[in-house]
Amino acid sequence: MTTAEPSPETRTALAVRLRELVAENPDAPAVTDDDATITRAELDARTNQLARRFARLGVTKGSLVSIALPNRIRHTESSVAAWKLGAIPQPLSHRLPAAELAALLEVGDPSLVVGLEPADGRAWLTGAEDVSDEDDSPLPDVVGPSWKAPTSGGSTGRPKLIVAGQEASVESVLGTKAESLRFDRDGVMLATAPMYHNGPNMFSLMALLQGHHVVVMRRFDAERAVRLVAEHRVTWLYVVPTMMGRMLRLPEEVRAASDFSSLRTVLHVGAPCPPHVKRGWIEWAGAATLIELYAGTESQASCVIDGAEWLEHPGSVGRVASGEMRVCDDEGRELPAGEVGEVWMRRAADTPPTYYYLGAQANERDGWESLGDMGHFDADGYLYLADRRSDMILVGGANVYPAEVESALAEHPAVVSSAVIGLPDEDLGNVVHAIVQTSSEVGADELREYLRGRLAPYKVPRTVEFSPEPLRDDAGKVRRSALRAERLTRSGNPCRSHPATVTPFHP
How far apart are CA 91 and CA 475, in angstroms? Predict the structure, then answer.
């Protein structure tokens, strides 16, 4: 999916594509949120006005515009307005605490913040301003140096920005990516997750440029998402495994009444997908409809797999589709098929950098980079992920990957979500601890007994903690390191009332 840098003669500003879409069908819906719908013509005119307001506040070509808004039309408009000035949209969570916002603003130094008020006095807008008094005529076409700059805390929790290496041109943003991700022209895309995450933000903007009607959910609700697919005749659905599981757990009568006949693509990213969830969706939406993408925001390399391939290689995230990948041991030696190690990536030869960091350095070795994922290739070149290196639990000398335990827990009918972490143990070094959200009452002993039929003894949680709150956000993300740190700072173990006998493992 990686393409060479387009020559200056072939670069088309993103504003040009939007005007072409207006010329094709000015009254076609462009963006819908929970409150309103705007047409292509309205989007173009309103973003011209918003861009002029941005410019009067100091936004220029190459500067960052931080967008800290909930999922709504103005979020998308802010990205487009930034493009029209050659600036770089930089999405942030609208729920950031003041200290984290300050840290991110220090890293990125944006010329404007939309949404949250910065404490350092820099220019900002609430995101609710009426800009109808601004000129709505086209601005001079400009190609900005980058089309997006999402944030990531990664495994360290320290804020960083990942500035895309692709300029803000049609050729760089779409290129061959639109085809490989099945972004055909003039479809309907349903964005289900918070736009401050790279996936929903990136895919909704790509869909917009392909003439899709982009339907944005303010907050994910499983039953409403099913209804919106039918109501808007959605053709391209973005989901993460957490959402997929919630939708599968809807009452049978709701699922039976669903209409997925319009769907041509269901793309899922963001976390390992439990096999029973994957199979459920293959049955519901069709194997040909479902595709999975494995890639970091950095986009050095990627894997893609559809439902039919997955049935032949259950558990895989696919074969390498762009860039290069290899699996290595701790000394950097490439491992043979079947052996788990760290996944290393690099962009294809003779292609430009796909990103650069603000506030961080890449984990690099001899031209290869790692995002911290562990996994293995099979003999056919299909990649299978284990987990993040930083989340791996060493129990008596054996590796336990939390995602495997969480996947087994997810098969229990009462488990809604879970997070598995390691806690210190004098004998084994660490033991497995599960934090579980359930939909009905279930005991810790019952959960452990359920897992004993699915996992080796040393992988079964020693302790179980029940949480009344979801453990993953609407994008399916969970920060296990933060959960572990929280529990280590508590006075005493929160789960001593649910101990279990664990069989020590000695490799």
Answer: 14
DSSP of 381-433: S-EEEEEEGGG-EEETTEEE-HHHHHHHHHTSTTEEEEEEEEEEETTTEEEEE
Residues facing residue 388 across a β-bridge: 373
pTM score = 0.82
Residue 56's contacts (CB-CB under 8 Å, 6 or more residues apart) are none
Topology adopted by domain 392-489: GMP Synthetase; Chain A, domain 3 (3.30.300)
What count of other Cβ atoms lies within 10 Å of the Cβ of residue 245?
23
**Using an 8 Å Cβ cutoff, are 409 and 439 in contact?**
no
Q: Which two tokens stand for residue 82?
A: 């930034």
| Maximum average pLDDT range among 374-383, 422-431, 450-459 | 374-383
Q: Given the DSSP bridges, would you call strands 383-388 and 319-322 parallel, antiparallel or unpaired?
A: unpaired
**Alpha carbon distance 403, 386 (integer Å):** 7
Bridge partner residues of 199 (DSSP): none
Pairwise CA distance, residues 439 & 441, whole Å: 7
pLDDT for 498 beyond 80: no
Of 461, 447, 441, 443, nearest in space to 501 by CA: 461
Residue 154 clears pLDDT 70, i.e. is over it: no
